[in-house]
Specification:
- By secondary structure, the chain is an alpha+beta fold.
- Helices cover about 45% and strands about 10% of the residues.
- The chain contains seven helices and four strands, in the order ααβαβαββααα.
- Helix 3 links the parallel strand 1 and strand 2.
- The longest helix has 17 residues.
Length: about 190
């Protein structure tokens, strides 16, 4: 869902619903509940609408993480940027390059979520795309050290994506659409 006029608190409320109902509710990320329960997740809305402004917003969030060690992860929500998925993928690529250039490779990782997320080789109507579909385009910044620590205590983390794909296929496209729509998404 790309919106021109928005209230940041409404965007955050939609995003929190998505995290609760989809990410945690469907157990797409078995580590998400902990950061939500411990309130170590930060939600930041940006009105950036260009690559340059989004990259500046990303660097501000990296600075926030640098300066605020109790924040484990940040969702940089971009409600007015990149309605076209391929343009958004370019943003993700540019974000990763900038993080590497600025010396943040291995410190932070970016995960990608978009309302029209489409895995390579999949069809727009494949339910599996909903494992990465969100109510708004966003960049998810994670601390690499936190990922490493979480993975130490999780048996078979490589099975998570396959399990999620299997689950979405079992539930079907209509169910996944309905769930995303219930969170404020399209």
């Amino acid at each position: 869902m790309i919106v021109q006029n928005y209230q940041a608190d409404e965007v955050i409320a939609h995003t929190k619903q998505w995290v609760e109902k989809v990410v945690i509710g469907l157990n797409f990320c078995p580590f998400a509940a902990k950061v939500v329960n411990q309130q170590t997740i930060h939600f930041q809305v940006s009105n950036a609408d260009s690559y340059q402004l989004c990259l500046e917003a990303l660097m501000l969030e990296i600075q926030r993480l640098d300066e605020t060690p109790h924040i484990e992860t940040t969702l940089l929500i971009l409600p007015v940027a990149f309605p076209v998925f391929n343009d958004y993928l370019e943003l993700v690529s540019l974000s990763e390059k900038l993080m590497k250039k600025e010396g943040y490779e291995g410190i932070y990782q970016v995960a990608s979520f978009h309302p029209l997320y489409l895995f390579a080789g999949s069809k727009e109507t494949d339910a599996e795309n909903y494992t990465n579909r969100s109510v708004y385009p966003m960049l998810h910044l994670l601390r690499e050290s936190s990922i490493d620590k979480a993975l130490e205590s999780y048996k078979n983390p490589d099975d998570i994506p396959e399990r999620n794909i299997r689950f979405t296929k079992e539930k079907g496209l209509e169910y996944m659409k309905m769930l995303l729509k219930a969170c404020g998404g399209g």
